[in-house]
Amino acid sequence: MKPILRLDGICKNFGGVVAAKDVTFSVLPGEVHGLIGPNGAGKSTLMNIISGIYTADKGSVFLDEKDITQVPPYTRARMGIGRTFQVPRFLQRSNIRDNLLLGTDLGNQMGYLNSFLRKKGTDFDAELQELLEIAKISFDWSNDISGLPFGKLKLLEIVRSMLGHPRVMLVDEPAAGLNNKEIEYAMDLLHLASKKRGIGVLLIEHSMDMIMDICEDIVVLNFGEVIATGGPEAIASNQLVIEAYLGGEQDD
Amino acid sequence: MKRKFSPEAIVLVSLLVLFIIITPRVLSGYSMNVVNIALMFAIVAYGISVMLGMGGQLTFAAVSFMGGGAYFMANMCTDRLGINMPTLPALLLTPVVFAGIAFVIGLLLLKLSGTYFTFSTIALVQVTYAFYNNYKPLFGGADGISGIPTLNLFGYKFTSYNTWFYVLIFLVIIVAVIVELIRDSQLGRSLAAIRDNETAALTMGINVYMTKVIAFTIAGALAAFGGALWCMHGRFVGSDMFNYLNAAQFIIMAMLGGVNNTVGIFVGALLVKVLPEILRSLQSYMQLIWGFFIILLMVFMPTGLAGLYEQIKANIKHKLQKKREGAGQ
User: Fold this and answer.
1) Is a pLDDT exceeding 90 seen at residue A106?
2) Between chains, do B193 and A102 touch, taking CB under 8 Å as contact?
3) What is the CA radius of gyration of chain A?
4) Is A53 contained in some domain?
């Protein structure tokens, strides 16, 4: 199968700090691909390079085998790179409806004029209902988004991202701050995204239970370098990975 | 996900109807003039609300474009340059021309972001003011341009302030509806996304730069339209109107009412224009009062009167809910 997302030799330095060093891996459609590593390993930087917020010093990003290294971030989003953040980024002064419509806007891509003239987009109501049932969220649309608890916001951000019909979803720590029930719902959402929609999911997560449970393939970063790749079992027993997380023996 | 007509909307429409019926019957002459100017200013303030309220981009450039619109109108209709257009086509042409000009200026200024952009708009105001105040061939210099014909609508000439009122309120309503439609469209949501977090907006597929330029264009067109109306209404255009102090006045209008609230802008424009007339005895202190007002506004009411209203409403709702829960137990 052709990869939907491929990184080829990505390098990125911030001053003297190496955030990414020759990172190469690919994500297949319909796959949940884990991206793990200790704090400061360069996971979020990599997400930012993929979504175009940062430009890589060297190397290329391919979406569906098309080189998108020079493509601006908003075009990448329209081409199908969806994204959620560690701390959900919603319109704080808007209601839930407007916030989710932002996702459908991305899915519709009808442009400002058509939208102003009230051209009908795709009917997202059914899709939204399905997603919300999985996320086990129900609420009054017209309520302010700020009234929602953190866990629901995180789930809702995944839902919003899916409404944009991405081909690749970059999901940054979906389980952080969620209770066990909500983590389950988040996994259900990601399962639906990958298995039913064929979206390639790149998942940053610190909860190893979640990573081991849902990922087919895992990349481990440390100090910007890929130190291991492979399936959950192989990674769990990899000496380098264990050292990176727990601190290895000193050489001297 | 549909919106319903709320009792609020009905109350607002009734109030508006009352305002339209009563105002021209009780006011005339000078006081009518004040209300009319408030209405024209509201059109300009709506442009600011698109930029500042929706998009979070503070711009002082409104007076530059307002002046542009006014002088354009004056030159098109007074035979100064040998052009003698009828007023209606000239009035309709103004926002189109200045949308184009604002678009080009927006492309340039919005290369800067945040505070830097705001400063660049202040610079623009100073530059245009210098031109308006000094360049005689186009702007009449310090004397301004007088003898501008009044609006001629298919043969009917608007000679009294009271008849002007109906035209102006009609136009304000149209502009308000357009702004409300923008708010509830992709453009409005994109601007809101930019206001809250530009990075997140980018990842939602929003072309941040272009979207800001479009908002700036809309604001420029509305300001020019307001300016064109203003010069026909007063039959005169002078540079005093388009200096920095007045630029700030428009920001206050938008902020007092509620910068992201269509009804709030209308109320804000009326208050800022009418209050000084009521407090006439304090006129020499007016700038001072506005200054304090802004500080208090920023600290206690950052979302203006409309925000205050929403807050009170939410509080009451919350209390009622508590009461109901209490009664249920």
Assistant:
1) no
2) yes
3) 19
4) yes
In terms of residue numbers, what domain contains A23?
5-246
Contact residues, chain A, for B202 at CB < 8 Å:
51-53, 72-74, 77
Q: 3-state DSSP helix/strand/coil percent for chain B, to nearest 5?
A: 80, 0, 20
CATH, residue A232: 3.40.50.300
The residue among B159, B173, B202, B187 whose CA lies nearest residue B12 is B173
Would A239 be classed as within a structural domain? Answer: yes
ipTM of the complex: 0.87
Q: Do B196 and A115 touch (CB under 8 A)?
A: no
Q: Kindly give the parts of chain B with pLDDT less than 50.
A: 1-2
In B, minimum Cα distance to A163 occurs at B204
For chain A, percent of residues with pLDDT exceeding 70? 98
Residue A37 lies in a domain: yes
pTM of the model: 0.89
Per-residue pLDDT tens over the stretch A141-197: 777 787 788 888 889 999 999 998 999 999 999 888 888 888 989 999 999 888 888
Domains contained in chain A, number: 1
Task: Enumerate the residues of chain A whose CB falls inside 8 A of the CB of residue B189.
Answer: 91, 94, 98, 101-102, 105
Instruction: Specify if A121 maps to a domain.
Output: yes
Query: For chain B, how far is it from start to end, CA to CA, in angstroms?
Result: 32
Residue with tokens 């009234």: A147
Question: Mean pLDDT throughout A28-49?
Answer: 90
Query: How many angstroms separate the CA atoms of B20 and B24, rounded?
Result: 7
